[in-house]
Structure formats: C-alpha cells, structure tokens
C-alpha cells in the first residue's frame, strides 16, 4: 500500500499561524499595470505584505511560538526544527538554526530548511510525522512560511503574499488532531521555477492548472481517500493549496467537496497566496473552528510538482488549546492597507 | 563586520534573555554577572515575558546609516512587566498611533543587514499586543 502510516499513533499537538499586518489591494496592481482592464476578474481581493523588518525567519518564529503555546510544551523538548520556504533569507545558512535559537529549542535538536516551492511546508510536516511516528523523538516542529516574490506587473504579483503556519507533531495522547495517514504524489512537471540568483520566478501560464495543480491535488487526495475507504462526505472540512480563489474551489468541486467544507480554511481572498505557508495557514484556520471528532483533510501543492495529502481526526483537546494563542483570524483581521508605492519601497523593487 | 559580538548577544537579542537574582529576585536586562541591587552572585538566566508598556517614545526621521529603509520609525522606552526598562524600536504601528502607556509585546524582527554580502541581524522590537490591544487582560 502506498499510503503512509506511522509506527505509533501521533498527531498535531500544537499549531500556530502568522500573517503580516499590511495588505495591498489587487485592484491597485490592476490599476497600475493593466489600466484596471482586469478589475472584474481579479484572483484575490488583497494580499498580505511583509513589513520592512519581516522575513521568513521572523514570521516562522512567531507562528512557532504560537504552536508551542498551544502545545503547552517547553521549547527544549523539541527534537527537530524544519522550515519549508522558497524565501529563506540566506542562500546558504539555515533558517532552522535561527528559529531554534530564538525559541530556546537549540542546541539538542535537528534543524534544516526544506525547499519544494509551495509544498515545502507540508514536506516539513511529513518529515516531522516520520521522526515522531518512528519513535525516534517525541516532538518535532514543522513550519511552512514565505515572503513570496512577484515580478512587478506579472500575473503572480496579484497574489504573491507573506505568511504561514507552524505545527508541533507529537504523540496522539497529547494531540489536538490525530493523524490517520498521509499520501504523497510527485512528478517532474515544470509549471513554475526560479533559477539560482534570479529575483523572480517564471511560470508557465495556463500550464500551471491542469497538468500541475489539478493533476497532483486530485491524485493525492483520491489516493489517500481510496486507500482509507473514505469519501468527501466523511470529512467535516478540507483545505487545498490556495494560489487564488478559483483553483481550490474548482478542485474541491471536482473531488466532490462542498463549498461549506472548504469555507473555514479558504483565506486566499483576504491574504493572498502565502506559497509554502498557504495550505498550512488554511489548515490552522480550519482547526480554529473544528469540533472534536471532525475528520479534516489537508492537501498541499508545490510546483515542480507534487502534493501531500493528510487526514486528521480532531480530539477534545482542541477546545482548551485553541485560545492559548491568537487565532488565525486575529491575524487576518489585523490589517493595515498600504499603497503600491509603499509596497514597492518595502519589497525593494526600486533600484536606487 | 562584528560576527563574534552578534553571536555572543544572540539570546539577549533574539528572545530578551536577561538575568534574575536568586537572592533578592531582581530582574536585569541586559544580563548581569552580579546583581546590581544586592550584589549577590547567584544570578540565573531569565527570559522576559516580553509584555510591557510604552514609557516614552520618539519618532526617527533622520536615520543613522543602515536604518534608512525603515524611516519613519519609532524608538521607545518600554517598561517590562518584570520592572525593567529597555530601549527598542516599535514595529507594526504608525507613529501617530503610539501613546505613552500603550501595552506592547516583544517580537523578533530584522534589525538590519550588514550590506549585500554580510549578516542579516535580528533582534527584539515591540508592537501593539495582538488580541488584547488595550492590555485589559493584564493582572497589574
């Protein structure tokens, strides 16, 4: 069987979100670069913009701090810090050690960075699940976080946003959501990439849809559900990677999920595409509203390309855990609009 | 480039780690090897909660070298709830929103970069508290 089940029962013992305070309206980008011609077909309403002193390290630290608070754990029990991102601040020098030091997890821990476009965060979760599920460690921290880059005027500039979430994986006895199984599906598909030393990624326009996003998500989700003998009706909620509003809605429909099942986790319209953070952030919003006994589906997608699908069952511990740290919506509603000029200055799009 | 100094100060800067006197209970930031209050030598590392209030502040428009990209920004004196006053930048706040007595919490942010090729420096700043902006949940 190709689904993956850990040797012992494990789950999410803590989770935490982070979204920067600032927002740029898609309409402002449309007005500047397209004369407003596409204002009726904008992919999102607005996107989050990191402040000038924020990056993947600082955002990962806050999300992980929230996850540790919900887990009620002291930091030195964590045995791995894995950060998935395509915007690690250094080309060489791990984000993971900085996060581990800042949180007080260092020094007795694994630490490394993962890269798989928007799938890097769920890949970090898979690694944490394996480490804890094998019994090699009791607790591991996985983070998906990005300050995504969008070339000025490009289609991706409307959505390339900043934010993400962190998960502490641990034994099922302390879990807010117990893992049932995972399934991963990858192929070599060149829908989106960024070469070394390039500031902005390239993408293959419509090719990013059917052969990339839809093919991998559908196969990952179906592979997992078929092996577990489940149908969409068995899930209380689901999150699919959110590059825009259209794709997750369409893939949900194609798989047989209702709009209500994806409602709580669909944040892209308000915060944009947070890349490696996207599906993990949506899942934290879903957990914020989940009830004990709910079965939840998480399916990521990363260009290049692949998807991780995971099924969790929420426990009664969720009730006490969720208010130990700010909920995802506290970050969504903490918003201050900025204009395009401010965004361009902060994101260093001017050559001085 | 001052790699050894930045490395030495990492816990102090990243997570507001100071000291606490085991004899008289006084908190210190920056960390002290000897308690300035009772002169006791039994001081232990202490991580401040990071919660505090703005004692006073100023807005910087003419920044020193390396801080130009953050202008205008706010530098504040923050009274931590343990009774220690620290100087730090405020972040995620418009200068006109800042007020004396405002409840703030510590966050880790970029302090600056040592040029294109050097280190990226991180350290504590303070921002208005999330979820409890007026500080109503405080016990003090």
Summarize the topology.
The complex is a heterodimer of chains A (352) and B (140).
Chain A: E1 10-18, E2 22-25, H1 26-34, E3 46-49, H2 56-71, E4 80-84, H3 95-103, E5 110-114, H4 120-133, E6 140-147, E7 162-171, E8 177-189, E9 192-193, E10 202-203, H5 209-228, E11 237-240, H6 246-255, H7 259-263, H8 268-271, H9 278-288, E12 295-299, E13 304-314, H10 317-321, H11 328-333, E14 336-337, H12 340-346
Helix pairs in contact in A: 2-3, 5-6
Chain B: H1 3-8, H2 10-15, E1 17-21, E2 27-28, E3 43-47, E4 51-60, E5 73-80, E6 85-90, E7 103-113, E8 120-128
Antiparallel strand pairs in B: 1-2, 1-3, 4-5, 4-7, 5-6, 7-8
How many helix segments of chain A?
A: 12
Helix amount of chain B, in percent? under 10%
β-sheet strand percentage of chain B: 35-45%
DSSP strand content of chain A: 15-25%
Q: Show unreliable segments of chain A.
A: none
Domain count of chain B, please report it. Answer: 1
The rounded Rg of chain A comes to 19 Å
Largest sheet of chain B: 5 strands, antiparallel
For the largest beta-sheet of chain A, the strand count, sense and barrel status come to:
9 strands, mixed
Helix/strand structural class of chain A: alpha/beta
Average pLDDT value of chain A?
97
Number of strands of chain B: 8
What's the helix-strand series of chain B? HHEEEEEEEE
Structural overview:
The complex is a heterodimer of chains A (352) and B (140). Helix content of chain A is 33%, strand content 24%. With 352 residues, chain A is an alpha/beta fold. Chain B is mainly beta. Chain B has one domain: OB fold (Dihydrolipoamide Acetyltransferase, E2P). Chain B has 2 helices and 8 strands. The model of chain B has no long low-confidence stretch (mean pLDDT 93).
């Amino acid at each position: 069987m190709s689904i993956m089940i850990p040797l012992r029962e494990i789950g999410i013992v803590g989770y935490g979100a982070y979204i920067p305070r600032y927002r740029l309206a898609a309409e402002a980008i449309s007005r500047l670069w397209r004369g407003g011609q596409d204002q009726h077909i904008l992919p999102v309403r607005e996107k989050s913009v990191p402040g000038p002193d924020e990056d993947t390290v600082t955002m990962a630290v806050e999300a992980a701090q929230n996850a540790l608070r919900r887990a009620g754990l002291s930091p030195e029990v964590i045995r791995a810090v894995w950060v998935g991102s395509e915007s690690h601040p250094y080309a060489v020098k791990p984000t993971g050690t900085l996060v581990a030091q800042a949180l007080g997890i260092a020094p007795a821990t694994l630490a490394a960075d993962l890269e798989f476009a928007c799938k890097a965060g769920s890949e970090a979760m898979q690694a944490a699940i394996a480490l804890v599920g094998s019994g090699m460690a009791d607790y591991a921290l996985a983070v998906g976080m990005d300050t995504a880059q969008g070339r000025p005027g490009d289609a991706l500039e409307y959505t390339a946003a900043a934010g993400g979430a962190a998960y502490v994986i641990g034994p099922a006895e302390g879990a807010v959501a117990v893992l049932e199984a995972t399934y991963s599906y990858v192929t070599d598909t060149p829908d989106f990439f960024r070469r070394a030393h390039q500031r902005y990624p390239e993408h293959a326009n419509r090719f990013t849809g059917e052969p990339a996003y839809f093919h991998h998500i559908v196969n990952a989700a179906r592979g997992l559900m078929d092996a577990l003998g489940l149908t969409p009706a068995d899930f209380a909620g689901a999150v699919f990677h959110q590059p825009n509003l259209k794709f997750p809605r369409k893939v949900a429909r194609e798989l047989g999920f209702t709009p209500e099942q994806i409602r709580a986790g669909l944040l892209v319209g308000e915060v944009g595409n947070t890349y490696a953070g996207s599906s993990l952030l949506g899942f934290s919003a879903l957990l914020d509203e989940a009830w004990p006994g709910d079965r939840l589906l998480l399916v990521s997608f990363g260009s290049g390309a692949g998807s991780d699908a995971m099924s969790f069952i929420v426990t009664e511990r969720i009730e006490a855990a969720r208010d130990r740290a700010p909920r995802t919506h506290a970050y969504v509603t903490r918003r201050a609009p900025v204009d395009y000029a401010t965004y361009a200055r902060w994101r260093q799009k001017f050559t001085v | 480039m001052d790699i050894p100094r930045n490395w030495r100060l990492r816990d102090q800067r990243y997570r507001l780690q100071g000291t606490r006197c085991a004899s008289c209970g006084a908190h210190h930031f920056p960390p002290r090897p000897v308690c300035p209050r009772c002169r006791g030598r039994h001081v232990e590392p202490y991580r401040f909660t990071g919660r505090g209030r703005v004692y006073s502040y100023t807005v910087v428009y003419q920044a020193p070298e390396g801080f130009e990209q953050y202008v205008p920004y706010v530098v504040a004196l923050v009274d931590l709830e343990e009774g220690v006053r620290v100087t730090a930048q405020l972040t995620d706040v418009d200068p006109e929103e800042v007020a004396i007595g405002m409840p703030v919490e510590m966050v880790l942010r970029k302090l600056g970069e040592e040029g294109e090729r050097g280190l990226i420096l991180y350290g504590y700043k303070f921002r208005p508290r999330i979820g409890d902006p007026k500080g109503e949940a405080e016990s003090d």
